[in-house]
Structures are given as C-alpha cells and as structure tokens.
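Hi L., both proteins are below.
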Amino acid sequence: MRVCAQLLCLALLAVGCGGSQGSGASATTSATTSAATGATSIGLGLRGAAGLRATVYARGLRNVSALAFDAEGRLWATTSAAANHARDGVYLIPSAGAKPVEVIRGVEGPLGLLWHGGRLYVTSLGRVDVYDGLAGDRFATHRTVLVEPAGHGWNNAIVALASGRLAMGISSACDHCASTSKWSGTIVSFRPDGSDVRVYAAGIRAPFGIAADPLTGALIASMNQRDDLGAKTPGDWLGLVRSGQDWRFPECYGQAGAACAGVPAPLAVLDAHAAAGGVAIAGARLLGGTGRSALVSEWERGVVLRVRLRATASGYASARPALLVSGLKNPLPLVTAPGGDLIAGAWGSGIVYRIARA
C-alpha cells in the first residue's frame, strides 16, 4: 500500500491528480521539482525560500488535521487518524511552545475547524458541531448543527464567507464513480445555525483545503483528482471557486479534452499524486514584499507551495507554483497567524511549525 493511501481513508485527499482542463496545459510537470531552485536551510531540517526561518510552535499533536486561531490569538488544533478515531480530538495551544490541552474528545475524523461569532465549529464524519461558552479548557454548551445522510465522503475544511454564511468542502464518496448523493464531491454553504444547506459548487472530487481571501472574499480550494490512473494521473489543482460552478467530476478530472470543455481553469496545477491539503492566504510580511499568495500543502511530497495571487478582471491570473517549504512529514493543515506568519501542521510527526520571515 502506498503511504498516501492512508490519507485516502482520511478524506479522499488521495494521491491527487489534476492537470489542465480544456486549455490542454501539461499534466506531467512536477510543481515541486520546478519550484525547488534557490531553496536554503531554514532550520529544524527544513528547506525553503531565502529569508524564512522555521521554529516549533507545538509538539505532540499526533495526526494534526486542522488549525484555527481564536479571537484572543490562541491556536486550536484537531487530530484525526486515518482509520482508528479513538484518539481524535480538539486541542487548545495557549501560546507558542505550550503543551496542547485536549478540550474536546469523542469526535470522529475532525478535518475542519473555525472560530466564528465567538463559537467553535468542528467538522467531522457526517456532522458539524458548534461549541460555545469556553471557560478555561471546557465549553459550557455543545450543539450539533448539521447531520448529513450517508452516501458521500468526509467533511473537510470550513470557512466563513463574506455573505455571513459558512462554506465546507465534502469529498466524493469514491475515487471516480458517480455518486447518488448530491452532496458528494461538493463545496456546500449554510447558515451558522446549520440551516439552509446549499451546494455552493459541484463536481469537485476532494476539496480538502479552502480559504477565503480576506481582501476579495474569493474562495480558493485545493482539489484532489483521481487515484486509479498511475502514471497517467494529471496534477492536483488549486482553484478559484465561485458559487454555482460545476467542475464536472467524475467526467472531468483534469485530463483535458472534450470531457473538460467549459470547466473552470485552475489557478495552478500542482504535483501529481501529491494529496493537496490545507490552503492559507499569505501577505507581504511572510513573502518578503513579493506580493500576496495562496499557500497549499502537499501531503505526499512533504512541501508547502505558494501560488501568486495576481488580480485580473475575472479573478486571478493562473500561476506556476513555487516552493515555500520542504522537508515536512506529511504537512496537512495551514493557517495564517494574526501577525502574518504561517502555521503548518505535520500530520506525520505531530509537530506544528511556525514559518516566519527571519
């Protein structure tokens, strides 16, 4: 079994493929290889763009799967194993270097975490829960605001939209078959109380990481493609996702040709079999004045890539990924700290890193 096959159990974040759509761009380019020029040591055995420095934010979070900051600037994390969820939980990290404190246990497969309106939202297998009234390391109230019918994949990242609604990625129930569930392989939106659930965008095999650009409100998602094509697999995608779109999975999986005609073009084509994970938006402080970028982790390749966000009349220009950090053991969740640093969780080692401008 491939190492990344474990992650297929985790979210169909599977050894992704993804390549160009109807434009016919190359599906075989290695983003990591092409982006690695100029990498240097940044500490802790990691390599990255010149001017960066890596430090340990926290240790001991086995299978760290999601990260979020609260209004007080404290970091929260979820842990989710690939199959046995007995140790899954939600943790508070009071400050950098502090020992993580388990606050919530008994959740199964939590992959999304969001503080919104003073409440903590946790997405997990088939449900979304909300926790309120934090006192010390315990919440006073807990409500399940969304319970989903069977027939689709895992609930992934969750973000707040400018409209006041929440958006959440849901993986497909299968690698490349058509699902009977309308929620399978979609990004959905709903009110904070869990009501009025709608398909925001359809036909996305595994939208694992999603982030809302704080400047434009645009929704940017990582998209894992099919895993049954071996060397014919195109690269994973990073895409700008708009309400009402259909990316047409399973017919289209980034292979170009008639099946993908009219499908939105990706912002960037990532590595093949990469298991594209978390997404975060980074600004000039982290990137040294070189412009804003979307950051995306590649679980299988142990890297975080950056994709420049160049505004156009229709959204953003497509861009070639560049290496930000390499040497991580299965990086998965990413979040931008209040000061602009990147916080990256390594699912395989349980270490949460701070990546900052030296």
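That was the first. Here is the second:
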Amino acid sequence: MKNPLLFFLLLLFFFAAPAQKSLITRLDSLSAAYYQQNFQGVVLVARGDSILYQHAFGYADIDKKIPLRTTTLFKTESTGKMYTAAAIMQLLEKGKLGLQQTLEELLPGLPVKNAGKITVHHLLTHRSGLQSPWDHAAFSFKKVYSREELEKIIIDLPLAFEEPGKEMYYSNSGYILLGWIVEKISGLDFDDYLATHIFQPLQMVSIRHLNDTLMPPGEAQPYRFLNSKKYIPFTQGIGPLASGAGGWIASARDLWRFMQGLDKGKIMSPQTRSIMFSANNSLPADSSFRFYAYGIENFVNQPIQGVSYLGHSGGGAGFSIDAILDPLTHTVIIFCSNTYTNPREISSNYMRMALGKPLAVIQKPNAIRIYDLISEIGISEFVKNEKKYFQQLEIKPGEWFFVNTGDAMMEAKDYSTLLSWLQLGATYFPGNGFIRLLQSDAYKSLGQKDQ
C-alpha cells in the first residue's frame, strides 16, 4: 500500500471494531442483569470524546408504561455540587477570591455562626460544621424559599461541631453559601453564571430548573420499590428549584459533557483542576481511601482495586444519580435512576466492565431481599429462625437495615409485619430511637394509642 499511515489506521479499525462490539455485548448483558434484579435507569459509558454505550432500561412512568429513553431527564440532586465547585475554581483562577478567605469577608453582614473562621476551603470540603436546611424541623421541600428565608434557617441551625476543619459533616448549607459567593464575586445571578461559564461552553443543552414540584410528563417520575412487587410514587420530596447544593434536572448526556469538560480542561486550567481534584493538595497519603475534595469525591483502590476514580453522586426525592471519571483512561460512567438505590455500586460495576476488571455481585438491595422473603414465608416464621435466614441471605443486620426495611413496611401499610420486625430490631439495637419512633407510628396507625 502506498500510504503506510492509512494502512496502519485500517489495521487499528480492523482489530478495534470487534473488541468494541464485544464490550457493547457485555455491557448489554450487565444492563439486562440489573433489569432482572428490579433496577431501572439510564447508563452511559464513554471514553475520551466517544460515547461507547448508551442504554435505557425500565420505565420513566411505571403506571403509564412509558419507557425510559437515553434522553430522559432526571432530577440530578447533589451532582450539581460539582458545578458550584467548578464555578468557585474559575473565580479562584481569575484571582477574584482565595481559598482561605472567610465567610465574614465574602458575605459580610451574614450572621452565620463562626463566619470569621469558616473558609472557602471548609465550605468546599464539608468541614464548616454547618448543617443542611432540611435538618431544620420547619423545612419543606415543596416550598420555594426566598434567600432571606433560607438565611434564617441556616443561621438558626446549631453547628454539627464547633471548630471549622475539625471533622467532616456533609453540608448542603455550605454549598448554598458557595452559590451566593459566586453571585457576590461575579456580579451575576447564580443561574446566569453557570449557564454562561459552564453549561453553554460544554453544550449541556437539556439541563434546567424543575420549576415545579412534579417532574414534567414523559420524563422520569420518581419511585421507591418497597419489595420486588410493591412500589410507591415518591413525589413528596421534590423541590422545585436548583441551588448551589444541586437539584438540576438533566439528561445522562448532560452529565457526561460536564465530566468530559472537566477531564479535558475545557472550563479551567489543568493547574486549577488539580487543586479542585486534590482539595489543594490535601489528599490522604494512604494507599486506599475515599476522600471529599472540592465538589468531587476521590476513590483510590476502593471500591475497585488498582483504580482511582472521582465524581459525585446525587440521591433524594426518589432519584439516584452518579457521575464518575477515571482520569487515567479518560473513562466516564453516568448512571441515572428514578428509584431509590445505591448508584455508586452500579456505576462502579460498569466502570469495572469498561476497564476489564472482575464484576461485583449483582443483587437487589438488602431491604428488598429481606422483605421479599418475609412476604413469602411470613413474619412469624422469619422471627422464629431469624439467624438462619440472615445467614441464608448473607445479611449482617445493622441499625439502618432494620430502620430502612421497617420504613418500607410502613409505606406498604403492612403494620402487623412491621411491629414484629421492629420488636426483633429492638432486641438487636435496644437503644435505637428510630426503631422506637417507627414502633410508635405503627401503633398509632393501628389505633393502639395506649401502646
């Protein structure tokens, strides 16, 4: 052949095409396995500039049998913290703020506790000690709050710990404050800043506010599966507007464009990105860790041995979202579901397959598996031989396991089963207040007020 380069490229295509087809076949098998175990959602696997795989399985609307599409919009919840952190990093890069500047300097007059000590670094890494607005007893997800109302809630809440930087406490309030800092420093409304400096440059064309307390018809409606056969619509927790803490509605492709933009340095320099990914070079020295940097979580040698990846998940209001990036191979995995699940377990398995690593076991969440078994054999039989059944399902019962399963029984109005389940839980964890609270709710629902 006269053109050796063309010959080489043809050889590459000849060998690469079957390998890619094989990967797609295996990814299809993985999606089918998840669907068989009651999972549903949209998955996207990309490497560099190429989307290798997009697939939707399950329903956007279960009752109307409207299937999910690869373009379906989901409430993406806390994944939006990555946008807020990226905006802060852009302003840092332009010299408009510093990581050690305090709330008192950047938002003067806002009487947040410890405002003179809490820095931008503390806010970005969830080390401010501030709680989240929904930790306040008066907070409602259905209400559209003015800034003044949110300020009052954030100010009213007690601190999770007194000394900023002492420990980590996941704080949505901290990211709401970061959004206000973006507005103050840039002179732009937070939405306008993100649209101009992040969404439009990265061609995130579907992302927007919900502007309602219900998802638009035809888009992903939120659900919670109580067991394999029972589910409930989960609309009571959907807030209408996004903020610095997240809450945008978007497609899987929008999330991919953001992760690709981070990877390729489209919205900040490599030096600034390194500061963002490493929390200004404060990553642990351990060989295996999970660490929250600036709007990004780092996972090193766990859950996948030999792989370091980063990203952010989002959960709430019946949605479970994850977006992760392996910077070494430039592999991005996006998983979006309109049911409650652990999206990180699922996205990690797709990452394993994309990188040729052994897969983790695919099975339904433990709370669903145990409720399925109890529905089959009856609660009396289960309680009589509970150790045998826990061992049979390879479940080590923990406090939140009893609470989550009990909450599903409460939602199913299965009160008699619930009371027996909680009595069992109280023998394992007699001091757990949530178990006692659920017991009280069950007695109330049955009209047993004396109990």
